C-alpha cells in the first residue's frame, strides 16, 4: 500500500536486488488496487496494472503469475494492515469504559480503510469476483476478524463488568454486518464518509452484547 511513485536509484549506486524487487512489488500492488477499484476485477488486466505502475508487463509477470495471484497478494497486505492497526488500538492507553474501547477499535478499523480506499475496495468488494481461492481467502480473514473481536471481548469485557459474546457465531454476525455496511459505503458513497459508520458499528456490536446478558 506504498506510493506508486516510489523509485530506486539505478546504476552503480543501485540498492540490492531484493530492495528493488520489493519496491517494484509495492508499486504494482498499489497500481493494482487503483485498477481494481476503477475497472472492477473482471475488466482489470496485467497490462492495465503495469501501465498504472509505469512498468512493463514483463515486470508484472516477474512478481505475479496472473491478476488472481496479484489480487490475493493485495488482499493479504490489506488484511495485515487492518489487523495491525486494530492491535495497535487495542494495545494503547487503557480507556475508562468498554464503550470507549469499542469506539477506539472501530475508529482504527475505519480510519485504516479510509486512508487506503482502493485497497479497501479490493479487500471487501472486488475480491468476491476473483474466483474460489479468493472467496476462501475472504472467508478466512472474516473468521480472523471475528476471532479478534471475540477474543478481545473475552479478555477485556469482564474487567469492565460487561457481557461476553454468546458464541463465536455472534462475533461473526457482527463482522458480517460491519463488512456489509463498509462495502455499501465503498460502492455507493452512503454515508458520505467511512468514519460516519463509527456510531452505527458501535451500536451493532454493543447491542449484540447487550442481548447476551438476557
Structure description:
By secondary structure, the chain is mostly helical. The chain folds into two domains: 1-64, Arc Repressor Mutant, subunit A (Orthogonal Bundle), CATH 1.10.10; 71-212, Tetracycline Repressor, domain 2 (Orthogonal Bundle), CATH 1.10.357.10. It is built from nine helices and no strands. Helix 1 (17-39) crosses helix 4 (67-90) and helix 6 crosses helix 8 (168-188). The longest helix is centred in the last third of the chain and has 29 residues, at 132-160. The radius of gyration is 19 Å and the shape is elongated. It starts with 16 loop residues before the first helix and ends with a helix.
Calculate the mean pLDDT score and round it.
Answer: 86
**The CATH architecture of the largest domain:** Orthogonal Bundle
Uncertain segments of ≥5 residues (pLDDT<50)?
1-8
Shape: elongated
**Count of strand segments:** 0
End-to-end distance: 43 Å
Oligomer: single chain
Helix content: over 70%
The SSE order reads HHHHHHHHH
CATH topology of the largest domain: Tetracycline Repressor, domain 2
CA-atom Rg in angstroms? 19 Å
SS summary, helix count: 9
CATH homologous superfamily identity of the largest domain: Tetracycline Repressor, domain 2
**How many separate domains make up the residues?**
2
**CATH class value of the largest domain:** Mainly Alpha
Characterize the main sheet.
Answer: none
Structural class: mainly alpha
Amino acid at each position: 500500500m506504498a506510493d506508486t511513485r516510489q523509485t530506486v536509484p539505478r546504476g552503480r549506486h543501485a540498492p540490492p536486488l531484493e530492495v528493488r524487487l520489493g519496491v517494484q512489488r509495492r508499486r504494482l500492488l498499489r497500481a493494482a488496487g487503483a485498477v481494481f477499484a476503477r475497472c472492477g476485477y473482471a475488466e482489470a488486466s496485467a497490462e492495465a496494472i503495469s501501465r498504472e505502475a509505469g512498468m512493463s508487463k514483463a515486470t508484472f509477470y516477474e512478481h505475479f503469475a496472473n491478476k488472481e495471484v496479484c489480487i490475493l497478494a493485495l488482499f493479504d497486505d490489506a488484511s495485515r494492515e487492518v489487523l495491525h492497526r486494530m492491535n495497535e488500538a487495542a494495545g494503547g492507553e487503557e480507556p475508562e469504559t468498554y464503550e470507549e474501547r469499542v469506539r477506539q477499535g472501530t475508529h482504527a478499523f475505519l480510519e485504516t480503510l479510509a486512508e487506503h480506499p482502493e485497497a479497501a475496495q479490493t479487500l471487501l468488494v472486488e475480491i468476491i469476483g476473483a474466483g474460489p481461492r479468493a472467496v476462501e481467502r475472504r472467508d478466512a480473514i472474516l473468521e480472523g476478524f471475528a476471532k479478534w473481536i471475540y477474543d478481545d471481548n473475552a479478555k477485556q469485557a469482564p474487567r469492565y463488568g460487561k457481557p461476553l459474546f454468546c458464541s463465536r457465531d455472534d462475533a461473526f454476525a457482527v463482522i458480517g454486518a460491519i463488512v456489509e455496511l463498509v462495502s455499501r459505503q465503498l460502492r455507493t458513497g452512503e454515508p458520505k464518509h467511512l468514519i460516519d459508520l463509527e456510531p452505527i458499528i458501535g451500536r451493532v456490536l454493543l447491542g449484540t452484547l447487550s442481548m447476551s446478558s438476557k
